[in-house]
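**Backbone shape codes:**
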Amino acid sequence: MERENGWGSPDTRPSFYKFMQFPHLDQLEIPSHFFNEHLASDGIRRVRLRGPCGSGEAKLQRCHGEGSAAHIVQGWLDFAKTHCIGKGEFMLFFYNGSMSFDVRIYRPNGCLKKYPQEFAPSSPSSFPFFRHQIYKHNVGEKCTLMIPMPFARMHLPFCKQTMMLKDSDGISWLINIVATSAGRLVMSAGWKAFADARSLKKGDACIFELVDQNLMHVRILRS
């Protein structure tokens, strides 16, 4: 499939598209013909996904049997939530080679999905970042925030650690990050103080930029 990438210039990268029918599924199927033509010979079991709200890694799992395809698992749901991919929307996956994909997301009306400027990197050389939409369990008593697994695996050590969160006003909060038995990193002690001070509520979104080993800049988008 050819797509224009600006002023009539065709994008000739191998590509496939997928409609989102069930947003909460934790896996996404890659068409068998695409997998067999472009991915099967690589023998690599991880893929990198890059979208307008961040990038991360996911596991590639091949199904067995005639005409079988492969699925993107263990990281796909984090990517879908980060980009708020809803039912009826569809995605174009452009293959860059070396198990790396650029993903474009379109609304049900066929128009490219636009994300607020706050979701975009601050510059082409911006720091690693992820976006998190605030849910009920992220605010209130005993609230926590789970760091997306692809981001955590790529940029953070899997251990208990401290992190400084700095907001757009330059105010900082020290939080603890704990490693769970399920293999996740979770912002725990100190997160509630940040959420309360910034009056976070369900439906808001935060952009976390890792600017140093123990420092994240946080931008908040109100619902």
About this structure: Residues 143 and 192 are 6 Å apart (CA to CA).
